[in-house]
Fold this sequence. Notes:
The structure is a homodimer.
Chain A: H1 8-14, H2 18-22, H3 31-41, H4 46-55, E1 57-61, E2 66-68, E3 76-82, E4 85-90, E5 96-102, E6 107-108, E7 119-122, E8 126-132, H5 133-142, H6 144-170, H7 173-187, E9 198-200, H8 205-212, H9 216-228, E10 232-235, E11 239-242, H10 245-250
Antiparallel strand pairs in A: 1-8, 2-7, 3-6, 3-8, 4-5, 4-7, 9-11, 10-11
The first copy, chain A, binds a DNA duplex through helix 9.
Amino acid sequence: MVRQHRTGYILRAMDMTRRDIHSLDIPVLCKSCEVRHKGMCGALPPEDLQYLSRQTRQIEQPAGTELVGESTDVGAYDNVMCGVVKLSKTLEDGRQQIIGLQFAPDLVGRLYASESPMTAEAASDVTVCRVPKATLERLIERNPSLRKRLMDQALRELDEARDWMVTLGRKTAAEKVASLLLLIATHLDPDAPGEARVFDLPISRLDIADYLGLTIETVSRQFSRLKSDGIITITANRHIEIVNLERLAKRCG
Amino acid sequence: MVRQHRTGYILRAMDMTRRDIHSLDIPVLCKSCEVRHKGMCGALPPEDLQYLSRQTRQIEQPAGTELVGESTDVGAYDNVMCGVVKLSKTLEDGRQQIIGLQFAPDLVGRLYASESPMTAEAASDVTVCRVPKATLERLIERNPSLRKRLMDQALRELDEARDWMVTLGRKTAAEKVASLLLLIATHLDPDAPGEARVFDLPISRLDIADYLGLTIETVSRQFSRLKSDGIITITANRHIEIVNLERLAKRCG
DNA sequence: GCGCTGCCTTGATCAAGATCAAGCCGGATG
DNA sequence: CATCCGGCTTGATCTTGATCAAGGCAGCGC
């Protein structure tokens, strides 16, 4: 499934026309996604953009593919184009915790570390642009705006991780599930402001449980309660409509 | 209480002598701390170091002092010299979660944000060097090594936050308490490699509970169990000796 | 000395969420 | 079509940690 993107304002922000983009001889497959990739890399000058494009491969990964394993060497960064990537850690006895979800246009991969401190896995079908480690680091070196952008992503992820620590440590199961629904509603479509009211859950119940520090049974029961309380509707297991956004937000603690 | 610091290797790393440091006319009060402040700021050239020193005030804060409030404007960053600063968030109904502890020589304060996303509070008596926001940002602007250092701190804090999410989401109370003891043992003395075996807990039982997402009663019971199992000894409520480090580590899950 | 306060511990009981178990549903496969 | 399988839901029961309650202990002011 290829999602539609509204790209006009990104082009304007970059002071480029669509023709400029296409003239760069970029080996991308997914036309609707290519602009986002460059959006991520911000105001790179044309020569850097060309260099980046030559080094980049766009890859479609089915749900469940492991992008980077915990404690394995990282050879490349993945720029998320469509879909959701989950970051997780596993204790020795198999208990798993998802420690972050990444949406377009996040960059997957721990900068400046030779070993990934966590597993990155496609939670839904995803499309990524894969940039070799050396390429990106070289671009960072000579490109202040890219550097700033990555610093901003790191700080934003830190804020999000700390927000989620409150959810994990202090919220009830009902509040956790409500918080997750709002999180997904706000992140799913980066082009739309505010929360989506209708969307498909990009991740399984097990992933939700692992993100919230709960069991799938508890997650399922909380969904059922939200449904019977008339706050959401669920069809085909994954398709959510938020009927009463206000009451959902109130349940977030 | 002023802790003793071994400073020789820091000076060597900076290619400076103690005389160089003292010649800079730095308005610091705590002689044993000033070197650490510069350690944080890395290889700043002498003129930047002088500029920084002129703009900096060293402050002693008793335990409980609020350094920055949640959602308040931030006018300055605090460089931790001695003691422990806790970062926390509070839900509307008062539930609190500590989302990070900062030890020397961490820099307290969210870069590039006008409003602090969290509360920063002295968990123990602390000494900080307070740097005005504009000063630090100006130094970052023209100083690649400082920039890199702050990026590294942000990424390290992100790693730590994500590690802690596993603790919050998936560990039992016993594992949480064991993990905390190890965390404190490894962070308390930044000059010593490995874990301290004997130390004073720098934070109260309530703070521990708020960091672990537990209640004080549960924390207290877990301490009692570690004691009766012969893994630690506790005297005067705060003074800890780790008798059996291996078994403690095994309890971390 | 006495009582007060803040911080911590311990015990009894309760409830949220985990665990165990069964069954449902939709899609794939023969 | 029947069967299977993975993902999800629902119910019954159990366990962990929360809650409620009481008391210990060190420091401090009178």
